[in-house]
Amino acid sequence: MKLNYKKLGEGQPLIILHGLFGSLDNWQTHGKKLSEYFEVYLVDQRNHGHSDWSNDFNYDLLADDLNEFIEDHDLDDVILIGHSMGGKTIMRYAQKYPGKIEKMIVVDMGVKEYPIHHDTILDGLKSIDLNEINTRSGASAQLSEYIDNQSIRQFLLKNLYWIEKGKLGWRINIDVLDREMAQIVKSLPKEESLIDVLFIAGGQSNYILEEDHDDIRNLFPLADFHTIERAGHWIHAETPEEFMEEVLGYCLR
Asked: Do 64 and 153 lie in a common domain?
Protein backbone atom coordinates (compact mmCIF):
# COMPACT_ATOMS: atom_id res chain seq x y z
CA MET A 1 0.00 0.00 0.00
CA LYS A 2 1.22 3.51 -0.84
CA LEU A 3 1.31 5.47 2.41
CA ASN A 4 0.66 9.18 2.84
CA TYR A 5 3.64 11.09 4.21
CA LYS A 6 5.22 14.46 4.83
CA LYS A 7 8.92 15.06 4.21
CA LEU A 8 11.02 17.57 6.17
CA GLY A 9 14.71 18.48 6.05
CA GLU A 10 17.58 16.63 4.46
CA GLY A 11 20.35 14.22 5.45
CA GLN A 12 20.16 10.69 6.83
CA PRO A 13 16.59 9.37 6.52
CA LEU A 14 14.50 9.13 9.68
CA ILE A 15 10.96 7.74 9.59
CA ILE A 16 8.37 8.27 12.33
CA LEU A 17 5.28 6.07 12.72
CA HIS A 18 2.37 7.12 14.94
CA GLY A 19 0.31 4.90 17.22
CA LEU A 20 -3.25 3.58 17.21
CA PHE A 21 -5.91 6.22 16.39
CA GLY A 22 -3.09 8.66 15.52
CA SER A 23 -1.63 10.20 12.39
CA LEU A 24 1.51 11.93 11.16
CA ASP A 25 0.00 15.22 12.37
CA ASN A 26 0.69 14.13 15.96
CA TRP A 27 4.44 14.26 15.22
CA GLN A 28 4.78 17.53 13.31
CA THR A 29 6.47 19.46 16.12
CA HIS A 30 9.02 16.73 16.79
CA GLY A 31 9.47 16.15 13.07
CA LYS A 32 10.32 19.81 12.52
CA LYS A 33 12.96 19.71 15.26
CA LEU A 34 14.47 16.47 13.97
CA SER A 35 14.56 17.88 10.42
CA GLU A 36 17.36 20.20 11.58
CA TYR A 37 19.54 17.07 11.59
CA PHE A 38 17.81 14.47 9.39
CA GLU A 39 15.63 13.94 6.34
CA VAL A 40 12.42 13.22 8.23
CA TYR A 41 9.46 11.27 6.88
CA LEU A 42 6.25 11.49 8.90
CA VAL A 43 4.05 8.62 7.72
CA ASP A 44 0.36 7.69 8.07
CA GLN A 45 -0.12 3.95 8.53
CA ARG A 46 -2.96 2.19 6.69
CA ASN A 47 -6.46 2.88 8.05
CA HIS A 48 -5.13 6.09 9.62
CA GLY A 49 -4.65 9.70 8.54
CA HIS A 50 -4.65 10.27 4.79
CA SER A 51 -3.47 6.76 3.90
CA ASP A 52 -5.89 4.35 2.28
CA TRP A 53 -8.23 2.04 4.14
CA SER A 54 -8.01 -1.73 3.97
CA ASN A 55 -10.05 -4.62 5.36
CA ASP A 56 -6.77 -6.34 6.29
CA PHE A 57 -4.78 -5.15 9.28
CA ASN A 58 -1.90 -6.86 11.08
CA TYR A 59 1.77 -6.22 11.79
CA ASP A 60 3.04 -8.24 8.85
CA LEU A 61 1.05 -5.98 6.53
CA LEU A 62 2.12 -2.83 8.34
CA ALA A 63 5.76 -3.93 8.09
CA ASP A 64 5.28 -4.70 4.39
CA ASP A 65 3.78 -1.22 3.88
CA LEU A 66 6.84 0.31 5.53
CA ASN A 67 9.15 -1.79 3.38
CA GLU A 68 7.36 -0.65 0.23
CA PHE A 69 7.68 2.96 1.39
CA ILE A 70 11.43 2.60 2.04
CA GLU A 71 12.00 0.90 -1.31
CA ASP A 72 9.89 3.44 -3.21
CA HIS A 73 11.97 6.28 -1.74
CA ASP A 74 15.25 4.37 -2.18
CA LEU A 75 16.24 4.86 1.46
CA ASP A 76 19.22 3.26 3.24
CA ASP A 77 20.71 3.47 6.74
CA VAL A 78 17.30 4.47 8.03
CA ILE A 79 16.53 5.48 11.60
CA LEU A 80 13.04 4.37 12.63
CA ILE A 81 10.94 5.83 15.43
CA GLY A 82 7.61 4.24 16.33
CA HIS A 83 5.18 5.02 19.12
CA SER A 84 2.90 2.33 20.58
CA MET A 85 1.38 0.46 17.60
CA GLY A 86 3.97 2.18 15.41
CA GLY A 87 6.63 0.75 17.70
CA LYS A 88 5.42 -2.78 17.04
CA THR A 89 5.32 -2.02 13.32
CA ILE A 90 8.99 -1.03 13.25
CA MET A 91 9.98 -4.00 15.41
CA ARG A 92 8.21 -6.36 13.01
CA TYR A 93 9.88 -4.56 10.11
CA ALA A 94 13.27 -5.11 11.75
CA GLN A 95 12.49 -8.82 12.05
CA LYS A 96 11.44 -9.12 8.40
CA TYR A 97 13.64 -6.54 6.63
CA PRO A 98 16.73 -5.71 8.72
CA GLY A 99 19.01 -4.70 5.85
CA LYS A 100 18.12 -1.01 5.53
CA ILE A 101 17.99 0.00 9.21
CA GLU A 102 20.78 1.71 11.14
CA LYS A 103 18.92 1.98 14.46
CA MET A 104 15.45 2.29 15.96
CA ILE A 105 13.64 3.98 18.82
CA VAL A 106 10.54 2.23 20.17
CA VAL A 107 8.38 4.55 22.26
CA ASP A 108 6.44 2.87 25.08
CA MET A 109 5.76 -0.48 23.45
CA GLY A 110 7.02 -3.95 24.30
CA VAL A 111 7.09 -7.25 22.45
CA LYS A 112 4.43 -8.95 24.57
CA GLU A 113 0.71 -9.39 24.03
CA TYR A 114 -1.41 -6.81 25.81
CA PRO A 115 -4.95 -7.17 27.13
CA ILE A 116 -7.54 -5.47 24.97
CA HIS A 117 -8.25 -2.19 26.76
CA HIS A 118 -9.60 0.13 24.08
CA ASP A 119 -13.24 -0.93 24.47
CA THR A 120 -14.41 2.37 25.98
CA ILE A 121 -12.66 4.41 23.29
CA LEU A 122 -14.12 2.31 20.50
CA ASP A 123 -17.60 2.33 22.05
CA GLY A 124 -17.38 6.12 22.28
CA LEU A 125 -16.22 6.53 18.69
CA LYS A 126 -18.91 4.17 17.39
CA SER A 127 -21.56 6.06 19.35
CA ILE A 128 -20.96 9.19 17.24
CA ASP A 129 -23.54 8.93 14.47
CA LEU A 130 -22.23 11.23 11.75
CA ASN A 131 -25.58 11.07 9.98
CA GLU A 132 -27.01 12.92 12.98
CA ILE A 133 -24.00 14.80 14.39
CA ASN A 134 -22.62 17.46 12.05
CA THR A 135 -20.45 19.59 14.34
CA ARG A 136 -17.18 18.93 16.15
CA SER A 137 -18.71 20.24 19.37
CA GLY A 138 -21.56 17.75 19.02
CA ALA A 139 -19.09 14.90 18.47
CA SER A 140 -17.10 16.01 21.50
CA ALA A 141 -20.20 16.15 23.66
CA GLN A 142 -21.18 12.64 22.60
CA LEU A 143 -17.67 11.29 23.20
CA SER A 144 -17.56 12.89 26.66
CA GLU A 145 -20.22 10.39 27.77
CA TYR A 146 -17.52 7.71 27.39
CA ILE A 147 -14.22 9.54 27.92
CA ASP A 148 -13.74 12.10 30.70
CA ASN A 149 -10.19 13.09 29.75
CA GLN A 150 -10.36 16.16 27.51
CA SER A 151 -6.87 15.63 26.04
CA ILE A 152 -7.75 12.11 24.92
CA ARG A 153 -11.02 13.35 23.42
CA GLN A 154 -9.18 16.06 21.50
CA PHE A 155 -6.62 13.53 20.25
CA LEU A 156 -9.36 11.21 18.98
CA LEU A 157 -11.44 13.98 17.43
CA LYS A 158 -8.49 15.11 15.31
CA ASN A 159 -9.53 12.19 13.12
CA LEU A 160 -12.71 13.99 12.05
CA TYR A 161 -12.68 15.91 8.77
CA TRP A 162 -15.18 17.72 6.58
CA ILE A 163 -16.32 15.59 3.64
CA GLU A 164 -18.37 18.56 2.54
CA LYS A 165 -20.07 21.47 4.28
CA GLY A 166 -22.19 20.09 7.11
CA LYS A 167 -20.94 16.49 6.69
CA LEU A 168 -18.17 15.03 8.86
CA GLY A 169 -16.21 11.83 8.23
CA TRP A 170 -13.53 9.76 9.95
CA ARG A 171 -9.89 9.47 8.88
CA ILE A 172 -9.56 6.25 10.90
CA ASN A 173 -11.22 3.01 9.83
CA ILE A 174 -13.05 2.41 13.09
CA ASP A 175 -14.83 -0.79 12.02
CA VAL A 176 -11.62 -2.56 10.94
CA LEU A 177 -9.60 -1.35 13.94
CA ASP A 178 -12.35 -2.61 16.22
CA ARG A 179 -12.56 -5.97 14.43
CA GLU A 180 -8.78 -6.48 14.35
CA MET A 181 -8.00 -5.33 17.89
CA ALA A 182 -6.71 -8.81 18.77
CA GLN A 183 -4.09 -8.39 16.01
CA ILE A 184 -3.12 -4.94 17.29
CA VAL A 185 -2.42 -6.12 20.85
CA LYS A 186 -0.79 -9.48 19.98
CA SER A 187 2.83 -10.33 20.74
CA LEU A 188 5.62 -10.26 18.19
CA PRO A 189 6.86 -13.53 16.66
CA LYS A 190 9.84 -15.10 18.44
CA GLU A 191 12.37 -13.97 15.83
CA GLU A 192 15.69 -12.40 16.80
CA SER A 193 16.77 -9.07 15.29
CA LEU A 194 20.30 -7.72 15.74
CA ILE A 195 19.37 -4.06 15.26
CA ASP A 196 20.45 -1.34 17.68
CA VAL A 197 17.27 -0.22 19.40
CA LEU A 198 16.39 2.12 22.24
CA PHE A 199 13.17 1.50 24.16
CA ILE A 200 11.84 4.68 25.80
CA ALA A 201 9.26 3.93 28.47
CA GLY A 202 6.91 6.16 30.43
CA GLY A 203 7.35 5.73 34.16
CA GLN A 204 3.60 6.28 34.67
CA SER A 205 2.74 3.73 31.95
CA ASN A 206 2.59 -0.05 32.21
CA TYR A 207 3.52 -0.79 28.59
CA ILE A 208 7.19 -1.49 29.34
CA LEU A 209 7.95 -2.74 32.85
CA GLU A 210 11.38 -3.67 34.16
CA GLU A 211 10.24 -7.29 34.22
CA ASP A 212 9.69 -7.09 30.44
CA HIS A 213 13.34 -6.30 29.66
CA ASP A 214 14.52 -9.91 29.45
CA ASP A 215 11.76 -10.87 27.01
CA ILE A 216 12.57 -7.83 24.89
CA ARG A 217 16.27 -8.68 24.86
CA ASN A 218 15.46 -12.23 23.78
CA LEU A 219 14.21 -10.74 20.50
CA PHE A 220 16.38 -7.60 20.40
CA PRO A 221 19.69 -8.50 22.10
CA LEU A 222 21.15 -5.03 21.41
CA ALA A 223 18.31 -3.21 23.19
CA ASP A 224 18.92 -0.25 25.50
CA PHE A 225 16.27 1.13 27.84
CA HIS A 226 15.42 4.59 29.14
CA THR A 227 12.49 5.56 31.33
CA ILE A 228 11.06 9.06 31.58
CA GLU A 229 9.61 8.77 35.04
CA ARG A 230 6.98 11.53 34.94
CA ALA A 231 5.53 10.50 31.57
CA GLY A 232 2.65 8.21 30.74
CA HIS A 233 2.02 6.42 27.45
CA TRP A 234 2.07 9.58 25.29
CA ILE A 235 5.65 10.39 26.27
CA HIS A 236 6.38 12.66 23.31
CA ALA A 237 3.35 14.84 24.11
CA GLU A 238 3.63 14.80 27.91
CA THR A 239 7.39 15.44 28.27
CA PRO A 240 8.43 16.79 24.85
CA GLU A 241 11.75 18.38 25.84
CA GLU A 242 13.09 15.42 27.80
CA PHE A 243 11.86 13.05 25.10
CA MET A 244 13.57 15.03 22.32
CA GLU A 245 16.81 15.24 24.31
CA GLU A 246 16.87 11.45 24.62
CA VAL A 247 15.98 10.90 20.94
CA LEU A 248 18.65 13.27 19.65
CA GLY A 249 21.25 11.88 22.04
CA TYR A 250 20.64 8.40 20.69
CA CYS A 251 20.24 9.27 17.01
CA LEU A 252 23.30 11.52 16.79
CA ARG A 253 25.78 9.33 18.64
From this structure: no
pTM over the 0.85 mark: yes
Q: 179 in a domain, yes or no?
A: no
| Partners of residue 41 on adjacent β-strands | 7, 15
Beta carbons of 65 and 40 less than 8 angstroms apart = no
Query: Cα–Cα distance between 60 and 188 in angstroms, integer?
Result: 10
Write the single-letter amino acid at 206: N
Do 108 and 228 have their domain in common?
yes
Give the domain extent around 62. 5-114+185-251
Same structural domain for residues 109 and 15?
Answer: yes
* Single-letter residue type at 236: H
pLDDT at 117 over 90: no
pLDDT tops 90 at residue 65: yes
The last residue of one of the domains, among 150, 174, 198, is 174
For residues 116-127, give the mean pLDDT.
94
Rounded to whole angstroms, the Cα distance separating 22 from 85 reads 10
Share of the chain above pLDDT 70, in %: 100
Give the mean model confidence (pLDDT) for residues 31-44: 98
Active centre residues (catalytic): 84, 175, 233
How many structural domains does the chain have? 2
